[in-house]
Specification:
Blueprint: H1 8-12, H2 19-49, E1 54-57, E2 70-76, E3 87-93, E4 96-103, H3 110-119, H4 121-127, E5 133-135, E6 144-145, H5 151-163, E7 169-176, H6 185-212
Antiparallel strand pairs: 1-2, 2-3, 3-4, 4-7, 5-6, 5-7
């Protein structure tokens, strides 16, 4: 695939004031790149997970006043949508690019997923590299380095996922907007592919729950 990565100007889109102006820049500048990534990784993720994966590029259609602080392409095993399903994401905030596995607040499997994560806590903590990060809110750019996640912290995150209606859990990587790999398309694709490979066991845990629910 002919992919040149992301530039400094792509991240500056999120400094543009006003909904219409920022949305126009997202649509013209960033969305075509996300569409390319969607087309490229959907077959890869299908092969890795054993599920046919479809990509969904964020449209931000419900926004009427506030411009989006991030944008993304998501991958799930449904043509109709992804928010209720365990899914993968590639996207941008002003500060960084993110690559996630995510179970967000709309998902009906949150409680069962939290339970299976708790049962496999030791394996999960060993499988995830120290340079990965965790998030409990997909709308915020903040994240917790995996190197700071001990058994107690992980238990608190899974309990929160189980007990709180709006709770979420995401795991993946952040690449700062100044990192040179972002402008090296081939290297960036390889980094994303490696990340998805590392995150696939989390998807497999979630898909077992989804299949039995």
């Amino acid at each position: 695939m002919n992919f040149n990565g992301f530039t400094e100007q792509d991240f500056k889109v999120f400094n543009i004031q006003g909904l219409d102006a920022r949305m126009e820049a997202i649509q013209n500048q960033i969305r075509p790149k996300l569409e390319k990534l969607g087309e490229y990784f959907a077959p890869t993720l299908s092969a890795a997970t054993g599920d046919e994966m479809f990509y969904h590029t964020a449209k931000h259609a419900r926004r009427t006043v506030n411009p989006p602080d991030d944008t993304w392409v998501a991958f799930a095993n449904s043509k109709r949508g992804y928010k209720k399903l365990p899914h993968f994401q590639i996207g941008l905030f002003e500060s960084h690019l993110f690559v996630w596995f995510a179970v967000i607040y709309e998902s009906p499997i949150k409680k069962d997923f939290a339970k299976i994560l708790s049962e496999h806590q030791g394996e999960v903590l060993k499988q995830i590299p120290d340079d990965f990060v965790w998030s409990v809110d997909h709308t915020k750019p903040d994240a917790i380095p995996h190197s700071e996640i001990d058994e107690e912290t992980f238990s608190k995150m899974t309990t929160r996922l189980k007990d709180i209606k709006r709770a979420e859990l995401l795991c993946g990587i952040h690449i700062p907007n100044h990192d040179q790999i972002l402008q090296d398309g081939e290297a960036l694709l390889s980094k994303m592919d490696q990340t998805f490979h590392t995150l696939t066991p989390l998807y497999n845990y979630a898909s077992k729950v989804h299949a039995s629910s």
